[in-house]
From TrEMBL, chains A, B:
UniProt keyword annotation of DNA-binding present: yes
Lineage of origin: Bacteria, Pseudomonadati, Pseudomonadota, Alphaproteobacteria, Hyphomicrobiales
Keywords: DNA-binding, Transcription, Transcription regulation
Organism field: Xaviernesmea oryzae
Coiled coil location: none
GO molecular function terms attached to this record: DNA-binding transcription factor activity; transcription cis-regulatory region binding
Annotated protein name in UniProt: LacI family transcriptional regulator
CDD domains registered for this protein in UniProt: HTH_XRE
Alphabetized InterPro entries for the sequence: Cro/C1-type_HTH (IPR001387), HTH_LacI (IPR000843), Lambda_DNA-bd_dom_sf (IPR010982), Peripla_BP_I (IPR028082), SBP_2_dom (IPR025997)
Residue span, HTH lacI-type domain: 11-68
SUPFAM superfamilies (alphabetical): lambda repressor-like DNA-binding domains, Periplasmic binding protein-like I
Alphabetical list of PROSITE patterns matching this protein: HTH_LACI_2 (PS50932)
Length: 343, 343
DNA sequence: AATCAATGCTCCATCGATTGAGCATCGATG
DNA sequence: CATCGATGCTCAATCGATGGAGCATTGATT
């Protein structure tokens, strides 16, 4: 198919200068808004603006940024785009960056440590002023790379030790969620028994804190959590499903209630529950650390914790705006979500 | 909190040249891999590489790109990050771009026509070589902007008339989906009756084609679709919910089955169904144009159509790789998904 | 000894936008 | 009429990386 051929050469300020019968510096100042300060007449400004429009001129950012001191580019790396939490982080980040006249660049690193590092280096090459490492497997490595390249970094979702970190209050969120699940057990099953904990990585900070909250809530409810019920099997749905299947196949007891450590793991859990038929028509009493609108609709009164993404990004940009962090780790309380309660 | 202060100045090839006792051009050629061609000794190359490592040197892309002829940057604009379809488009796009040594930049325009144009201009400023307009409200406008700036563009998901377009085969997908829903009606309700069509915008090409498939399938099943059952109320969940509520409140008949035109609209539909209680314990027979793992788990045997994102992006990159499109509109057949069938 | 190719570099113009410094011109003022 | 401030612009250096052209040096060949 023949589409209009690309123009051979891009219009530059020199082309516009020639067309307007003026100098490149006049054109530049008109187009970047400094023309009043530089005492360019309104008449010339208008002429240049019109010509730029006509010629479809777009400033060459490479040239412009090379000359300027600040790039106003902010970068973010994010593990995946496959769930609502990271999706809203990216969307909110872009919106808030634009509001401030910053140019956001985001890239997804698929939970691959090597790709995280490679992506960080690449962004530094583009002169990002800030790099937000979201859910990074090795945040301190990213911080070091940024520091040595003269850029600043922040950790989001998972904390690091060498840059300010903005994370959810995982302990409090998990504590509350566990209490709610246990209460639902009491109401629906007539008794409380230790819950199963499924999903996440035992090595990551969030899972650790959530486990701590999970255990504390058991203790405070007079229960002692069963260590064999704790399955931090990773985040992928298949892993959660395989973990449950393995337990089930081994003939071990299955719990009355479950704490699932992400919507992604919940996919696997619910799939296993339906497929195995272990719980019959009913679902086990469940709760999920993270939110998805369809989970609300799944029925079975699944409790959720929704991380407060707008508040987290307000904290991020407050650091970017001011250049300083009030404390090394900022914990944002997440929001309790009950079935249908968001309507 | 005091974190390590940023380095005042970034290391440049001139700094490395001085440290290595050589010239900037030697350093440059070592670092960009042309040193053999330029007959730099392996000894010097190794020394420079080591120094670059030690100093945390990162090439200044702005300077490098300014000098080079091609930027190897590819841009994409995407409406939202709030569903699996666009999420996987972005993730696949980034992965495939990286495989080719291209640098992907993606931005989300929140279905805002002004933001689409602004984002496109911004990307052109960064010298993107290709701009992929995904689900754009006015694709031809984007194409024109790109053409006049000497960049090439492609349309994805929604077609335009002035650049190659890669879209799902919406007619075939909707036809098949409608048939499946009607078959399920026959089986579960013992009879077929016209379905309701909920979601999407009447003005957009995809909704139009899906409606055409929807109607054709009715016709071929010996039914005439009820025009008052067609509710292209937009994509947001609240709009779908409001549309159903309005119909219900008006006392009009509700259908036995529904064709829902996106997972996002389905959120609203399922929410209304559960809230209104109109369908009692059962769900209406349903189908959804788009896929989400939780919908599979919702029960009620909701049929889905999953758009073939990998095939779509393979088509995109085949055009980028070769520079030419085999035809103006490439239609990719979507994939039928049955409840639990993906396990 | 002169010639020549190969080796290993360096020099410098260039990409396009920015910006401090500076040069005309003009009308007003003493 | 000389001076001055305001007005409206232009000049040229600069940002950092790149790559064509070219310059020494070395060793081999006639």
């Amino acid at each position: 198919m023949q589409f209009p051929p690309r123009q051979t050469k891009k219009t530059t300020i020199y082309d516009l200068a020639e067309l307007a019968g003026t100098s490149a510096s006049a054109v530049s100042s008109v187009l970047n808004g400094t023309w009043k300060k530089r005492r360019i007449s309104a008449k010339l400004a208008e002429k240049v603006t019109r010509l730029a429009q006509e010629q479809g001129y777009a400033v060459n950012m490479q040239a412009s940024l090379l000359r300027r001191e600040s790039s106003r580019i902010v970068g973010m790396i994010v593990p995946k785009y496959d769930n609502r939490y990271f999706g809203s982080i990216v969307e909110t980040f872009e919106t808030m960056a634009r509001e401030r006249g910053l140019f956001p660049i985001v890239t997804c690193t698929r939970r691959d440590p090597e790709l995280e590092v490679e992506a960080a280096r690449e962004m530094l090459g583009y002169q990002v002023e800030w790099l937000i490492a979201t859910g990074a497997t090795d945040p301190d490595r990213i911080t070091d790379i940024c520091t040595s390249a003269g850029a600043r970094s922040l950790n989001l979702d998972l904390p690091g030790s060498r840059a300010p970190s903005i994370i959810s209050d995982n302990f409090a969120g998990a504590y509350g969620l566990t209490r709610r699940i246990l209460d639902n057990c009491q109401q629906r099953l007539g008794q409380m028994s230790p819950l199963m904990f499924v999903g996440g990585r035992a090595s990551d900070h969030n899972t650790g804190e959530r486990l701590r909250g999970f255990k504390a809530a058991h203790q405070d409810a007079g229960l002692s959590p069963d260590p064999s019920f704790i399955l931090p099997c990773g985040y992928a749905p298949e892993k959660a499903e395989a973990a449950l299947e393995a337990r089930w196949a081994s003939g071990s007891a299955m719990p009355g209630g479950m704490f699932v450590n992400s919507t992604i793991s919940l996919e696997g859990v619910v799939h296993w529950i339906k497929r195995s038929g272990h719980y019959g028509q009913d679902m086990p009493v469940m709760g999920c650390f993270d939110w998805d609108p369809f989970v609300t609709l799944l029925g079975g009164g699944i409790e959720m914790v929704r991380q407060d993404v707008p508040a987290m990004l307000r904290a991020v940009f407050s650091i970017i705006d001011s250049g300083e962090a009030p404390e090394p780790i900022i914990k944002i309380p997440p929001i309790d979500m009950h079935e249908m309660a968001e309507a």
